Amino acid sequence: MNKSILSIALGLLLAAAAPLVLAVPAGAEVKSADKELQQLYTQGQEAMSRKDWAQALERFRRLEERMAAGGDSNVDTAIFWQAYVLVQAKRTGEAKRTIDRLREKYPQSRWVAESEKLLRQDEVASDTTEKSADDRELAEIAVEGLMHAPPERALPLLQKVLAGKQPEKVKRRALFVLSQLESEQAMDVLIGVARNGDPALRGEAIRMLGISGDDKAVNELSTLYKSAGPEEKRQVLQAWLVADRKDLVFAAARDETDAKLRGDAIQLLGAMDATAELKQLLPSVKEPELQSKIIQSLGVAGDVDAIVQLLAGNLNPAARLEAYRAIGIGGGKRASDALVAAYPRAGNREERDAILHGLLIADDAKAMTALYKSAKTKEEKQQILRMLTTLGDDAAIEIIEQELN
């Protein structure tokens, strides 16, 4: 890259304007004792943080369905989050239809006015930031262009970007470029930001150290973890996930004294398919909540057989219920067969309900229909039918038709 192009790139970076973020009103959190609802909400929020609008929308739609099936009073909040995601994703037509549905179903909900406010915010933002968005896009392209420049030429420009008044999004792109430069000096700059940089960028710098996959970066992450606060430790755990370092995440799940962070590490092991590490961890974990998280993570990793084996042992009641739901998360025919086989042995209504939730998560209407047909009491039929009707499958609709006739 010649000197004139580098100068133009820097000029574009200096011209970029700050992005506008749509505000979220207070009280929009979903806090539920139902672990499945809480998990769907958390997964939706995490997807939004990654700007994965499709996954976020899917999670909030499922959240609405499960809330409606369970008679939860906060269904309107789940619909609001769908509208929020659609506005952020610039799917304005769908956002308006979602708000119309919210208004029709819950005319007294505070989220009707808040959703409409989101649309107005978006319209104002679109009118006032169109030009700055174009400038910002040019700046991002310019930064990416530095990836192809010699490190000794790119590094000073990237340092100017990080030290200047450019938008955060452009600075984040600069951190990514630093992580891709095959330069020890670039890695030192990245480590410096992760240690002592702008608080808004430190988390991104930590993530980029994970993306780099560099041995020096991974060692630095281990050092950072020892002295970091809870939030930065979470960011380091995420960086280890990106770097595919099961050993380091496992060590945190085993040795961390903060129960919430241990739970986070356990969930990441599930996302990393670290079934051997999860099974090794389980005997040493005494806290019921963490035991449940390990079982849930085995489901995320798809190890249905391991969960079935645990059910044959002496699980505490809460972990037993979690195991049935985790089998559903594992999915597939093996999961459905295991749940159907467990149903006749369920000792109480709570266990039967957890098994049905597992089938609901596995989205297996046929298996649930078979249980409905073999149910021996009216109470069981009612319990199964309530779950079955939320699936909307042909098999479910046939049962509904039979009952109506």
Give a description of the structure.
This protein is mostly helical. The protein has a domain of 149 residues: Serine Threonine Protein Phosphatase 5, Tetratricopeptide repeat (Alpha Horseshoe). Helix content is 77%, strand content 0%. The chain contains 23 helices and no strands. α7 packs antiparallel against α8, α14 runs parallel beside α16 and α18 packs parallel to α20. The N terminus is likely disordered.
Number of helices: 23
What percent strand?
under 5%
Biggest sheet statistics? none
What CATH architecture of the domain at 1-149 would you give? Alpha Horseshoe
Helix content: over 70%
User: How would you spell out the order of helices and strands?
Assistant: HHHHHHHHHHHHHHHHHHHHHHH
Q: Give the CATH topology of the domain at 1-149.
A: Serine Threonine Protein Phosphatase 5, Tetratricopeptide repeat
Shape: globular
Uncertain residue segments: 1-21
- Kindly state the number of beta strands: 0
Protein name: HEAT repeat protein
Pfam families: HEAT_2 (PF13646), TPR_6 (PF13174)
Keywords: Signal
InterPro entries: ARM-like (IPR011989), ARM-type_fold (IPR016024), TPR-like_helical_dom_sf (IPR011990), TPR_rpt (IPR019734)
Features of this protein?
405 residues, mainly alpha, Serine Threonine Protein Phosphatase 5, Tetratricopeptide repeat, 23 helices, globular, signal, ARM-like, HEAT repeat protein, TPR-like_helical_dom_sf
What is the fold's blueprint, element by element?
Blueprint: H1 3-15, H2 35-49, H3 53-70, H4 75-88, H5 92-105, H6 110-145, H7 151-163, H8 168-180, H9 184-196, H10 199-212, H11 215-227, H12 230-242, H13 246-255, H14 259-271, H15 275-281, H16 288-300, H17 304-311, H18 317-330, H19 332-342, H20 349-362, H21 365-374, H22 378-388, H23 394-404
